[in-house]
Amino acid sequence: MTQVATAPLVELRNVSVAFGGVRAVNDVTLDLLPGEVMGVVGGNGAGKSTLMRILSGAHPADSGEIRIDGQPVSITNPRDAKKFNIETIYQTLALADNVDAPANVFLGREMTTRWGTLDDGAMEDATRKVMGRLNPNFTNFSQPVKSLSGGQRQAVAIARAVHFNARILIMDEPTAALGPAETAQVRNLIRQLKQEGIGIFLISHDIHDVFDLSDRIAVMYHGRIVDTVNKAEVNPDDVLGMIILGKKPGEASEKELAEIELRG
Question: What is the pLDDT of residue 3?
């Protein structure tokens, strides 16, 4: 039986952006499939965050093309991105600390009654439904989110994206500053999103996160894609070599690889 190829949710084609003459993103082509986690890795200044800012509408590209479901689209601001069901969860999470989970899920997109007042009951019901899918053990619906653990706060940020029908999710360092138990909780959330067919760009410095969660890994170096590899076909040392040297597996000399081992 022939396997049917899945069309990409999103394609970035020959995308470039420069700041003051420096090409932060240089002719990058990358795609993402439904239910796939694409790890996007690289050293500081490699261009991974800038690339994702282009897709999220935070910074327009100077050149290149973005396609959603095979169709060219224009994404010039975050509203455009949301229109195409692209949601971003930044490392800071962008939560309002002094209000509860339902208020954060609907932040800026509040539900109102026919009289124009906030419909707190409807927002809590909707939040309970989406959280029931993501994290059935979550029960803190009435506490200010500042009192929640790091893993629970991530769950609230993810619930917000999922409730508004994210199909393409950009996650920036989702396990940064979390302990082992909370990291495991967030990893489980990401696996749940995969099962629901959501495509995820995972930006991370944590090579263990990347190997635990990604299907493919795109390595950036000085604004360019060094290579996009299937996770099953490489090991962490291969990826570290690409991050540090900007060379594909097999291109680095034994001396260069030995220097990387010494750094480690």
Answer: 45
* Cα-based angle 81, 34, 156 (whole degrees, multiple of 5): 60
Helix then strand then coil, in percent of the chain rounded to 5, is 35, 25, 40
Per-residue pLDDT tens over the stretch 64-93: 999 999 999 999 999 999 999 999 988 777
Residue count of the chain? 264
| pLDDT of amino acid 108 | 87
What pTM was estimated for this model as a whole? Answer: 0.89
pLDDT in tens, 201-218: 999 888 888 999 999 999
Residues 217, 220, 68, 4: is their CA dihedral positive or negative?
Answer: negative
CB 32 within 8 A of CB 209: no
Q: Alpha-carbon torsion 251, 218, 35, 15, what sign?
A: negative
Pure H helices in the chain: 48-55, 78-83, 101-105, 120-134, 150-163, 180-195, 207-213, 236-245, 254-263
Backbone angles phi, psi at 202, to 5 degrees: -110, 105
Residues 37, 194: contact at Cβ < 8 Å? yes
Identify the segments of the chain with pLDDT beneath 70. Answer: 1-5, 252-253, 256-264
Sign of CA dihedral 212, 31, 85, 65: positive
The helix-helix angle for 236-245 and 254-263 (nearest 10°) equals 100
Contacts 24+ apart (CB under 8 A), 44-47: 45/222, 46/220, 46/221, 46/222, 46/223, 46/243, 47/220, 47/222, 47/223, 47/224
